[in-house]
Amino acid sequence: MRLQDDLACLKGLGPKSAEKFHKLEIRTVEDLLCYYPFRYDDFKSRQVADLMDGEKAVVLGTVVTPATVQYYGFKRNRLSFKIKQAEAVVNVHFFNQPYWQDKIALGQEVAIFGKWDSKKASLTGIKVLAQLADDLQPVYHLTKGLSQASLVKAIKTVIDSGYLQLLEENLPRYLLEKYRLVDRQSAVLAMHFPTDLAAYQQALRRLKFEEFFYFQLQLQSLKASNQKETAGTPIVYDEQKLAERLSALPFALTQAQRRSLTEILTDMASGRHMNRLLQGDVGSGKTVIASLAMYASHTAGYQSALMVPTEILADQHYRSLKELFPDLTVVLLTSGMKTADKRAALTGIADGSVNMIVGTHALIQEAVSYHRLGLVITDEQHRFGVKQRRLFREKGENPDVLMMTATPIPRTLAITAFGEMDVSIIDQLPAGRKPIITRWVKHEQLEKVLDWLNQEVAKSAQIYIISPLIEESEALDLKNAEALYQDLQEFFGTRARVALMHGRMKSEEKDQVMQAFKAHEIDILVSTTVIEVGVNVPNASIMVIMDADRFGLSQLHQLRGRVGRGSKQSYAILVANPKTDSGKERMRIMCETTDGFVLAEADLKMRGSGEIFGTRQSGIPEFKVADMVEDYPILEEARKVASQILAQADWQASPDYQMLGQYLKQEQAFD
Ligand code: ADP
Ligand code: MG
Fold first, then answer.
1. CB of 184 closer than 6 A to ligand 1?
2. Which residues form the Helicase ATP-binding domain (predicted)?
3. Ion ligand 2, residue ranges at CB < 5 A
């Protein structure tokens, strides 16, 4: 029995179901053990007086009438009884679940999870809960064909078969003692089956520390090995040519853009190795600066590469670079490309006839060999891990590195998160931009919104409509988007050309839709959040976000940044009936400001106020349980400890650190 055992070897789990787990990146028993819930439903009971119509909740009460089952039609039935909660009498109905009758006895206290109907003062039961105590129910991300129940069952099987005992402690004992962290096995167990809130919180604290600690170890050992080779090649660019390009731009750079460009060029020209973060709100004009840096690199006789997280973005940047530099050879490299095109691109990259390369992860794959790679730029770099960044650097002759991000990160956090990186900030939007007008409307007002959209389409406006985000499953996301798309098609009929885009589409299909939208062959684009990052359609001036309260502030801000890119007055319409105070607050803040830094700060404050079970919002690198912003104190502690350990010359020899040394070696072997 090993933790690396394939899932398919588990009892009751054949290759067919194992395949479904693979879709969630769960292959081994260990993967499954470390696949944590993303949220816990708090089954704390509620007072019916506080419930909103249609809300799902647990209601605790005493049974005051016997339960009766009424049969009607074929196999249909209704189980009914009354419970009393304080002074309120509640009618409870279960449809087609007669088996709950056994659990209902007169005078007994019961906990029922159901949907509240305030008009009828009745509860439509979903289930009778076994426990009356507060109950945390884990909720996992799923994929098609895999239910919460079967996932939980698989985890139970793994634990019952004794695999948990194989999980070795991977933190030195003295750290566990110093920070009073629970051991690894208990932590993993409590993530899946928390006995109570306190146990869960302890587990979480330990796992967050572990995650940050290993992240910091990796980052800092990487930094140490980089420092040995900080001497970069001076990129002697042609100032004259660059100045010509600058004056050929259809606009003048903002002061903040000029400052950032100078900082970047100075780094590049120096013999020092550039490692810089370019931070600026959506639409602040980072891409232009990056393009100019790429051009400078070309004039010095070096290739440059731009890596982005999605194929749509790669294509967009590719087109805009070609447009900006028609005299240069720019190629696109993505894994979705046709083999022949890819081969041609690879040949050109290797023999140096290609000047600039734009692509996705394909850029760091084995087969790519660069000619003289002088500059590497990553867009929305928080989507790339430390390892990937290193791989990229190792491709060239220690190229200069520029990372761009639209996520406003406080400077202190950036330093801890990214190590010793220089930061340039574009804190100014190009002149003449009209601020986006944001309005929050309730679902009841949707029809008015649609009528208004109809008028705007007639005036040749283009519109994004973002379908609600369902964290549990991509399949549900899709279903929602499709339903919305159909409704809208029905509403607009021939008055507007409506199209749909979602994450399940092939990248070429997405590209086609996006290009058609850019070319104004589509008026209304219904989409899931796949358009979130970077997509640029200047004529699109309206964005409607359905169930906007499901999104975090940073994500709403990123989404909203897709409009307001042209000269037209732009609008963002948030459609939401938030159930929580924080949801309402988020809607209000979005209407008040369009400043990314103000929003980031508000986000920080709101989440600091103990929203333990909320959804996670856009972070920097992807962590399983930890959150760079929310858990900053833990991150800072982990950073200190990691640097103390690495500062000891012979740390790898110490028995305390055996696991750590092994881990770092393993990571390097994987590269
Ligand atoms: P970001 O990458 O920061 O989101 P972009 O570089 O895509 O922003 O710029 C957004 C839009 O603004 C683009 O259409 C770009 O051509 C334009 N733009 C960039 N800089 C300026 C400027 N200084 N003045 C006017 N328009 C600009
Ligand atoms: Mg951009």
1. no
2. 267-426
3. 287, 534
260 exposure class (CB count in 10 Å sphere: 0-12, 13-18, 19+): buried
How distant, in Å, are the alpha carbons of 215, 233, 296, 406 from that of 380? 19, 25, 22, 7
pLDDT digits 0-9 by tens, 528-560: 877 655 567 889 999 999 999 888 887 888 889
The answer to whether 413 and 628 are in contact (CB under 8 A) is yes
Helices 184-192 and 148-160 meet at what angle, rounded to 10?
150
| Interatomic CA distance for residues 207 and 492, integer angstroms | 50
Q: Is the CB of 564 under 6 A from ligand 1?
A: no
Distances (CA, A) of 572 to 119, 467, 653: 34, 14, 58
pLDDT digit string, tens, across residues 18-42: 888 988 889 999 999 999 988 787 6
The pairing of beta strand 56-63 with beta strand 76-85: antiparallel
Spacing, Cα 166 to ligand 2 middle (Å) = 46
User: How many residues in the chain?
Assistant: 671
Task: Give the right CATH number for 44-129 from 2.40.128.110, 2.40.50.140, 3.40.50.10090, 1.10.3720.10.
Answer: 2.40.50.140
The architecture (CATH level 2) of 437-593 comes to 3-Layer(aba) Sandwich (3.40)
Mutate-to-test residue for ligand 1 from 258, 260, 288, highest number of ligand atoms within 8 A of CB: 288
Q: Which helix (H) or strand (E) is 312 found in, with range?
A: helix 311-324
Selecting from 3.40.50.10840, 3.10.20.600, 3.40.50.300, 3.30.420.40, what CATH number does the domain 239-426 have?
A: 3.40.50.300
